[in-house]
Design goal:
This protein is α+β, with helices and mostly antiparallel strands and 81 residues long. The chain has one domain: Winged helix-like DNA-binding domain superfamily/Winged helix DNA-binding domain (Arc Repressor Mutant, subunit A). Helix content is 58%, strand content 12%. A two-stranded antiparallel sheet has the order 1-2. Helix 1 crosses helix 3. The radius of gyration is 12 Å and the shape is globular. The chain starts with a helix and ends with a helix.
Amino acid sequence: MEKYELKNKIFEYMQKYNGKKKLKEKDVWKGVGEETGVPGDEVKKALREMIDVGKLMYSYGGGASSVEIPSEEYLKEKGLL
């Protein structure tokens, strides 16, 4: 699977749970890996690249960190929009 296709699958997976469930990084690796058959380490690398460019972001609450899709307000604040 091409890297851009994998990133699209990760984003679709994140959209499916957006606002419904806080996903940990490991949840995304496992979930996308099971859906696509791509090894977890490749999913992890693609996920990290998406976080580095601001397509996804880490958040912290309730004593645990999670990964989520950033709001437009956050993107504007960071100068990504």
